[in-house]
């Protein structure tokens, strides 16, 4: 069965839309890895893991046909200081031209629901303090603040919220 919605745009499992992998690798690399000196190829290789059948990791892509809108990854560990938490919603990105359409919120919601479908009761996410309000506005709760060298906030979303 296809893992996507039809209106007004689709959110698909990357395993059903693998052609978006290079675009997502590009966005993730530019946003979070390029500045730290990591090569694009490392991120592109990591994206291939999103295509394996199995529980984690996996990716979601928001798209209108072949046009990429945004994406999120669901992974086992996003914060090395907190290996006890899992799974994580990570690398949430919406292209600038498509922001403020509700796509980011929809991606994060779908990502959390997907973790519940896998049997988890809580999904985790880490964010810079200035991004907290985006997540808190739709039900994410602060668990910890000022974690790690970047002072990240850990947020959780629980089944049934
Ligand atoms: C953060 C981001 C994913 C939001 O995506 P988006 O598709 O524009 O968000 P939405 O349209 O779903 O916004 C949902 C709500 O959050 C609000 N919002 C959007 N961006 C926000 C931000 N940066 N800070 C606070 N609130 C925000 C919107 O106003 C909207 O409120 P509403 O429902 O009352 O209208 C997007 O700006 C982005 O990709 N930024 C760069 C990457 C990034 O920072 N990712 C998050 C890493 S933790």
Automatic annotation (TrEMBL):
This is Acetyltransferase (GNAT) family protein. GO terms for molecular function: acyltransferase activity, transferring groups other than amino-acyl groups. Pfam families: Acetyltransf_7. The keyword Transferase applies. Gene3D superfamilies: 3.40.630.30. It comes from Sinorhizobium americanum. Keywords: Transferase. InterPro entries: Acyl_CoA_acyltransferase, GNAT_dom. Residues 9-161 form the N-acetyltransferase domain.
């Amino acid at each position: 069965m296809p893992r996507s919605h039809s209106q007004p745009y689709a959110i698909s499992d990357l395993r059903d839309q693998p052609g978006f992998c290079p675009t997502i690798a590009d966005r993730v690399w530019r946003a979070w890895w390029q500045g730290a000196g990591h090569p694009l190829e490392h991120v592109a290789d990591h994206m291939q893991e999103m295509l394996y059948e199995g529980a984690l990791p996996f990716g979601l892509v928001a798209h209108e046909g072949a046009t990429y809108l945004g994406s999120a990854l669901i992974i086992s560990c996003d914060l090395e200081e907190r290996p006890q938490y899992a799974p994580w919603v990570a690398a949430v990105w919406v292209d600038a031209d498509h922001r403020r359409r509700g796509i980011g919120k929809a991606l994060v919601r779908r990502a959390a629901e997907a973790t519940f479908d896998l049997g988890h009761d809580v999904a985790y996410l880490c964010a810079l303090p200035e991004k907290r309000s985006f997540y808190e506005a739709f039900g994410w709760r602060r668990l910890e603040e000022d974690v790690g060298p970047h002072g990240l906030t850990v947020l959780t979303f629980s089944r049934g919220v």
